[in-house]
Amino acid sequence: MRDFSEQELVRRDKLKKIEEMGIDPFGHKYEVTDFSLDLKEKYKNMSHEELEEKEIMVRVAGRIMFIRKMGKASFFSLKDKLGNIQVYISVNDVKEEAYSLFKMADLGDIVGVYGKLMLTKTGELTIKCLEYTHLVKSLKPLPEKYHGLNDVEERFRRRYVDLIVNDEARRIALARPKIIRTIQNYLDELDYVEVETPILGTILGGASAKPFITHHNAQNIDMYLRIALELNLKRLLVGGLDAVYEIGKTFRNEGMDKKHNPEFTMLELYKAFSDLEGMMDITEEIISTCALKLNGTYEIDYLGHHISLAPGFKRAHMVDLIKEKTGVDFFQVETLEEALKLAEEYQVEVEAHFAFGHIVNAFFEKFVEDTIISPTFVYGHPIEISPLAKKDSNDPRFTQRFELFIIGGEYANAFTELNDPIDQYERFLNQLKEKEMGNEEANDMDIDFVEALEYGMPPAGGMGMGIDRLVMLLTGAETIREVILFPLMKPKD
């Protein structure tokens, strides 16, 4: 048996009384014609006399969030999908039976209101209720004091309550699809084709990450949830789709923190006959366009920093940034032994599989990454950590790859794509060697992808961007769980 609180028992008693009145406590269709915010915007400049003269009739529905009962007349606040609006209800306007029904209302009940717009003495736009319709009885009380549920974990477990009473949660929830739609519209205008690729696969590739492993019973084979969208999208370039993108779920079996959730959303796009410079241009255009569309400005305040997201992001080579912070110039370091000595001198941790490029990247992560505040394209990643990027023709130890950093966080990753099948095959072999040496995030050998390249993939640029982190940046959310409606939570005991 479930145990109910005293308030829950009172609400269930009211439910029975509503049923005794011949009313379905869980409602039927209701024709909504108006929304709170639209009404406030449209009639914000009208006087009480103008509203009275025009007799503007409206029909709204939503959840009761506040009640002030005063005998034969009362006020309540109704919250719909866009916001709140005040309602005045009087026994003289709705008659005794409807007013008695209203008097049984609790915070959280869903009701319909048909009435006439008016201004109160304090100048607040209000609906004078002429027809009151009970729609749904709420059997659980809403939190009384809400700046978020008192237990932050409960906010994410019971997101439905969070969205009812936390306007900030609702703002972020509505901002996310607006950002995604802005990206889609922008890319569609550039003649990119939006596609869908498989979530399940038999090969681990497209990024360096630990996968989730599942099992296909019919074929009796293990499969991976994808860690990236890359390899299938590049197959489409081989097939002649010159510009493609996908916004889809990806999965990485790794830790959880403010910036990481095991299930997250990625944008990946690929453009034939483009390169790293082209990817820098489109990446900053996507971010600046989304900022302007959502917030009306390029300027944002985030994590204690004020920055601009206007096009024209800084561009710097990884090795140059390391030199600025440490004085070490890896362009002048010629052997692994030299790099290992530098790692020891600067107390940079080295793992068994580390080659020259891994050490360069470790220096960057330790001394540079967290210091980057303004949007910065960091390019020139070592070949060892970039198995799918084209080599830098000036120094083949490095690649034509960038990562975009803003306020110490990574927001995008892009390459001039490797389209040489012979080189790609060698890179995959090196990844297998790293896996044997203990690198759990190394890629598998994907022979089918190598064979696809053998048919010929045009020179191309490709970019991946974390949608969740972009939403965090543009909405001011400090944790990824704020921007995912139902983030992964540890089960309750």
Task: Jot down its keywords.
alpha+beta; 18 strands; BirA Bifunctional Protein, domain 2; eight-stranded mixed sheet; OB fold (Dihydrolipoamide Acetyltransferase, E2P); five-stranded mixed barrel; 24% strand
In DSSP terms, counting alpha (H) and pi (I) runs of 4 or more, how many helices? 15
**What class would the helix/strand composition place it in?**
alpha+beta
Task: Please give the share of residues in helix.
Answer: 25-40%
Task: Based on Cα principal axes, name the global outline.
Answer: elongated
Number of strands: 18
- The CATH superfamily title of the largest domain: Bira Bifunctional Protein, Domain 2
Query: What is the residue-averaged pLDDT?
Result: 94
Strand order of the largest sheet: 6-10-11-18-17-16-15-14
Which range does the strand content fall in?
A: 15-25%
Report the end-to-end length measured between terminal Cα atoms. 19 Å
Tally of domains: 2
List low-confidence stretches: none
Quick rundown:
It is built from 15 helices and 18 strands. The chain is of the alpha+beta class and 493 residues long. The radius of gyration is 29 Å and the shape is elongated.
Tell me the layout of helices and strands:
Layout: H1 6-20, H2 36-42, H3 48-54, E1 57-70, E2 73-79, E3 84-90, H4 91-103, E4 110-119, E5 125-136, H5 152-157, H6 159-165, H7 167-189, E6 193-194, E7 200-201, E8 213-216, E9 221-225, H8 230-238, E10 243-251, E11 263-272, H9 276-295, E12 299-302, E13 305-308, E14 314-317, H10 318-326, H11 336-345, H12 356-367, E15 376-379, E16 401-406, E17 409-416, H13 421-436, H14 447-455, E18 460-466, H15 467-475
Parallel strand pairs: 3-5, 6-10, 14-15
Antiparallel strand pairs: 1-2, 1-4, 2-3, 4-5, 7-9, 8-9, 10-11, 11-18, 12-13, 15-16, 16-17, 17-18
Helix pairs in contact: 6-7, 7-9, 7-15, 8-14, 10-12, 11-12, 13-14
